[in-house]
């Protein structure tokens, strides 16, 4: 590794670090400064922006945004709240499962902002330490990203893998990530079940409770969505959205089914590539929500789902372009340095995915930026599929919006960011979830069903 290469790598890391400190759009925008320095200052050849993935994200968040604008997301949250309030004793297990499956359906973890106050309220009213369900529920809302058929991380994995000869499909990815991540969530929930002191034994909580104003703040209001009116159009928008997901999964299965002549069913009936199918279906569903379900476009673009999705677009755009520029110019050197390690321990790429995620706060960006490098290093597709859950590491430093929001939602004060930054409420469930999910995913693809998942290489 030359001095110039080290300096350029430090520029990349500095851009990611500064972007993460500012957050939001800054992740992508400040990556542009790093890109400018590499291209104009050091003369590196610019990489290629991840346009295919960006187009899919735009289509998906547009569809999800119209779902929110039509009131359909409120209905989904109401259904989840009714189930949680019916079984309050099991909130430490049910809360994370709710946030997980909401993310799986919608493709973004930012739906947690609506359901998290309800999880906190149920736990507090049931005298359950809110940190227990809240910490793991915030983690679970992000873990669901690698299990969603319309999430950027999944679509990017399939697109990049296909381009590198590993012809895996979205259903096949979910066959690995869904059971692996669910196991990780259940293990994290079990570890959180008796976490910390009981509320009536916690000196800090007792002190807060003895203050009349604080008592009123904690117990005076109930967070709920049950009082919201759900219109017929709101219900219809949910059916449109779920129907579009089923169509996408159906088209993906067409990619898997082989005809006698060796072609896939999708090729036989002249279906376009999967990334094009997703874009067409998502945009059509968004249009149906606008025309038939009274979703106002201004409300859609003003909603949290659409705005957070577009922030992800900018982040992936800048980060992935910056990473592709650096690694593309130094691919030979990277191969020389890492070939021995990945040849003997190919699964060690999981540590790289995790560490990069800690820096850039985006699973989709990790996949787009690092997966091409992993394939260039000769790591097999089944290995990369197995360790896909390791792209979630940004719980490690608690600066992600869902974690910060969860701390604020917990009126009891038990969900915290510790004095030493890393001793926070999300560290334990996050580590358990990431480790268990990655190990389980690796075992599924490379041990239990090794022959099946290895069969997609062409």
Can you describe what's shown?
This protein is mostly helical and 458 residues long. Helix content is 71%, strand content 0%. It is globular, with a radius of gyration of 22 Å.
What is the gist of this entry?
It contains 23 helices and no strands. The chain has about 450 residues and is an all-alpha fold.
Reading the helices and strands in chain order gives HHHHHHHHHHHHHHHHHHHHHHH
Helical element count? 23
Q: Which structural class do you get from the secondary structure elements?
A: mainly alpha
Beta content: under 5%
CA-to-CA gap between the ends? Answer: 33 Å
The largest β sheet comes out as: none
Level of helix content? over 70%
Number of strands: 0
- Low-pLDDT runs of 5+ residues are none
Give the overall silhouette: globular
Radius of gyration: 22 Å
| Residue-averaged pLDDT | 89
Features:
mainly alpha, single chain, 458 residues
SSE layout and pairing:
Blueprint (H helix, E strand, L loop, with lengths): L2 H20 L3 H16 L9 H19 L2 H15 L4 H16 L5 H14 L5 H13 L8 H12 L6 H23 L10 H8 L1 H8 L12 H25 L8 H4 L5 H19 L4 H6 L1 H26 L1 H14 L4 H12 L2 H14 L4 H6 L14 H9 L17 H22 L1 H5 L4
Helix pairs in contact: 1-2, 1-16, 2-16, 3-8, 3-12, 3-14, 3-16, 4-5, 4-6, 4-12, 5-6, 5-7, 5-9, 6-7, 6-21, 7-9, 7-21, 7-22, 8-19, 9-22, 12-14, 16-19, 18-19
